[in-house]
């Protein structure tokens, strides 16, 4: 039996994701256009011809539906038949989407199954989050003093999903205001009275204490008698100690040079961004056992990580990976989902508990 699947964590509520996956109009924006089949009640045709891993259009019929958490459809694709399951599970920061497809009749070549799974993965990781950001953007009024609708910007993004944004090109007025406020706050802190205390001079060394016994004036000074020198009858030669060879400390192996890391935001979108951490090994031997920890703002989630193994525990995302060759580097790239349209960087980044450059 052939089975493929993928999953992704999204910072959006389950009902919003369910709407994007079951509304025919919205499904056509992030995956493929759909249309009802006139002579088949309850059946839909999905325009998948030309998508990676699909030979032709697919006709689907709903087998099970439990809103807003599960929908199961049977797919008819030529002579092949498969069962596609889409599950939406709420999480503390949004929801998790799982897609699994099992072949019931027919056979898929290995390459076809791999390309089809990649098609699902790219749609879930790229187009679906952009559509969900657009739906969320319609509910947030970022221009409170203007009567113009707020859905214009995300529509442009949905229409141009395949074009990757130029690095660090997006400029936000809100971010500029926040940066100005932060600058003024730091300046005010620097001008506050007080500050670190100046170094104090070391306490003077107290003079030596005088003897508590006073000299007796009635005692006369006693002139010491010369001590007669006695010449021995036979002089014994003094023994000269043999020199002890000094021990040369053995050279202990030097500790390997610690790895370094630098962070950079390589692309942004309305409600998310893509970050990259490059781990550098300046030493002369391969560096293994390194750990990179990225701290995200509360409510953010990481996904689509390449270049390392990872896990997220609350706000901390921990990356571990293969040994970095001597003088080489290892790049880790990851997507971050966030409901904040302004913040496009993590709160912190460390490699082996040392700060990363770039933040």
UniProtKB/TrEMBL annotation:
Q: Where is the CBM2 domain?
A: 252-359
User: Sorted alphabetically, which Pfam families does this protein's record hold?
Assistant: CBM_2 (PF00553), Polyketide_cyc2 (PF10604)
Show the segment(s) annotated as Disordered.
197-260
**What does the record give under GO molecular function?**
hydrolase activity, hydrolyzing O-glycosyl compounds; polysaccharide binding
InterPro entries named among the record's database cross-references? CBD2 (IPR001919), CBM2/CBM3_carb-bd_dom_sf (IPR008965), CBM2_carb-bd_dom_sf (IPR012291), Polyketide_cyclase/dehydratase (IPR019587), START-like_dom_sf (IPR023393)
Tell me the GO BP annotations in alphabetical order: carbohydrate metabolic process
* Low complexity bias locations: 210-239
Q: What is this protein called?
A: Uncharacterized conserved protein YndB, AHSA1/START domain
Q: Which organism is it from?
A: Micromonospora matsumotoense
